[in-house]
Design a protein that fits this description.
The structure is a single chain. By secondary structure, this protein is mainly alpha-helical. 77% of the residues lie in helices and 2% in strands. A hairpin with a 2-residue loop joins strand 1 and strand 2. The chain has eight helices and two strands. The longest helix has 35 residues. It starts with a helix and ends with a helix. It has two domains: 91 residues, no CATH class; 121 residues, no CATH class. This is TNAP2 protein. Pfam families: Sec6.
Length: 217
C-alpha cells in the first residue's frame, strides 16, 4: 500500500511539475514510471515466491488484477501518460496463475469445510428437545439455507473481485460442491426421519426442513 501510494503520488508530481522542465526527447515520465514499475514488480515477485497466508495471496492478486491496473494506472491524471509507457503486469503470467490456483484451492476447501460444519450443527439441533423457529408463522430451519447460500455467494463475489476469470473458475468449482452438500443434507435428513419418529418435535422439524427446499431452489 505504501509503495503504491508513493508511486501514484510521485508520478502525479512528475506529470504536473517535472515533465515540462525537460525536453520531450528525455522521456522523463517514462523513465520515472519504468523505474517505479520495475521496483514494484520485483517486490511483488519476491512476495509471490515466499510463503504467503491466504489473505496475503488474495491481497496480492487484488493488486495484480485490480488495484494496480485499474485504480492506479487508470487514474485521471496518469492514465494518458502511462498508456504510452506500456508497463505490463506486476507479476509474470505463470506466477500469477500459480497464485490463483493456490487461492482457488484454499477458498474451495474453506467453503466446503464451512458447509460441512454448518450441517453438523444443524443435525445436532434436530436432536435437541426444542421446537424449530417460526418465520411469518411457518416452521423454518432457515439458518442452514441462508448460511449455505451466503457462503457460496460471498465466495463467488470475493473471487470475481479479483478477476472475472477467477470468479468463473470458483463458481464452476462451487457448483460441484453444492450438489455434494445437498446430498449430505438429504442423507442426514433421511436418517433423522427413520430414527427419530418418537422425537417430541418430529413433525415441526420435518416441516421446517421441507420449507428449506424453497430457499435452496
Amino acid at each position: 500500500l505504501h509503495m503504491g501510494k508513493t508511486m501514484k503520488e510521485d508520478l502525479t508530481v512528475v506529470v504536473k511539475y517535472i515533465k515540462q522542465l525537460y525536453p520531450p526527447e528525455f522521456n522523463v515520465f517514462s523513465t520515472y514510471a519504468e523505474l517505479y514499475h520495475n521496483y514494484f514488480a520485483s517486490e511483488a515477485k519476491k512476495n509471490a515466491e515466499s510463503h504467503l497466508e491466504d489473505k496475503d495471496i488474495y491481497l496480492l492478486l487484488s493488486w495484480v488484477h485490480n488495484i494496480y491496473p485499474k485504480d492506479m494506472r487508470k487514474d485521471h491524471v496518469l492514465a494518458e501518460e502511462l498508456e504510452k509507457v506500456k508497463l505490463g503486469s506486476l507479476l509474470p503470467s505463470s506466477l500469477s496463475k500459480k497464485l490463483e490456483m493456490k487461492y482457488l484451492d484454499s477458498e474451495e476447501a474453506t467453503i466446503k469445510n464451512s458447509l460441512s460444519r454448518c450441517l453438523d450443527k444443524e443435525v445436532q439441533r434436530w436432536k435437541e428437545d426444542k421446537e424449530p423457529e417460526k418465520l411469518n408463522g411457518h416452521f423454518q430451519s432457515e439458518l442452514l439455507a441462508i448460511f449455505v447460500i451466503q457462503s457460496i455467494y460471498s465466495g463467488q463475489k470475493r473471487a470475481k473481485d479479483i478477476s472475472a476469470a477467477v470468479g468463473e473458475e470458483l463458481s464452476h468449482r462451487l457448483w460441484k460442491e453444492l450438489p455434494a452438500f445437498l446430498q449430505s443434507y438429504k442423507d442426514a435428513f433421511e436418517d433423522f426421519k427413520e430414527r427419530s419418529k418418537k422425537h417430541r418435535y418430529y413433525k415441526p422439524i420435518m416441516i421446517a426442513n421441507i420449507n428449506n427446499c424453497w430457499n435452496f431452489r
